[in-house]
Amino acid sequence: MSNEDGTMTVEEARALLAPYADGLLDPAMAQEVEAVMARVPELQDEFRTLKEENDLLSEALSPLRPTQSARMRVSEVMLDTYKHAEEADKILLDQKSRMIKLVMLVLVLGMCFILGAALLYTGVKNRQSKPKPEQELEKKSGAEMRPSGAPIKELE
């Protein structure tokens, strides 16, 4: 189905476009397809589309092998993340230790208050139950005592 002058038709070139894009045509046929594409802009657009699809397919089907620079960037990000995690850990430990110190202070102050209250209570109890020295002398002598400690003579 060549043209009258023996050149390839647009339909023939369109049919061979996919093998041409894949690099499967012999050099003579490839030159004929290129000649038709030079004359027909639609074939050039179709060829570009096929080439883009082939590139996408080869990229999608190729095994994942990151480049050296990509591995370095991932390593840097991981190191940076690790440093941030260490800093966050230190901050949390500082806050936790402050909280523990505060709780311990409150507990110690509470215990001191309870101990002081108990000592005060037992001291008051002991004062009420023990007689004063003046009262003991009165009981022994039967006489009242002055604040100076001298006995007051009983009036009879």
Tell me about this structure:
With 156 residues, the chain is mainly alpha-helical. Among the domains are: 10-61, no CATH class; 87-142. It is built from six helices and two strands, in the order ααααααββ. A hairpin with a 5-residue loop joins β1 (144-145) and β2. 4% of the residues are buried. The model has no long low-confidence stretch (mean pLDDT 80).
Lay out the secondary structure.
Layout: H1 10-15, H2 17-21, H3 27-39, H4 41-61, H5 68-129, H6 133-141, E1 144-145, E2 151-152
Antiparallel strand pairs: 1-2
Number of strands: 2
What is the N-to-C order of secondary-structure elements (H for helix, E for strand)? HHHHHHEE
Q: Which structural class best describes the helix and strand composition?
A: mainly alpha
Terminus-to-terminus distance = 164 Å
- Separate helix tally: 6
Largest sheet, order of strands side by side? 1-2
Tell me, rounded to a whole number, the average pLDDT.
80
Q: What level of helicity do the residues show?
A: over 70%
Biggest sheet descriptor: 2 strands, antiparallel
Low-pLDDT runs of 5+ residues are none
- Envelope shape: rod-shaped
Beta-strand content bin:
under 5%
If you compute it from the alpha carbons, what radius of gyration comes out, rounded to the nearest whole angstrom?
Answer: 53 Å
Q: Gist?
A:
The protein is mostly helical and 156 residues long. Among the domains are: 10-61, no CATH class; 87-142. The protein has helices spanning 10-15, 17-21, 27-39, 41-61, 68-129, 133-141; strands spanning 144-145, 151-152.
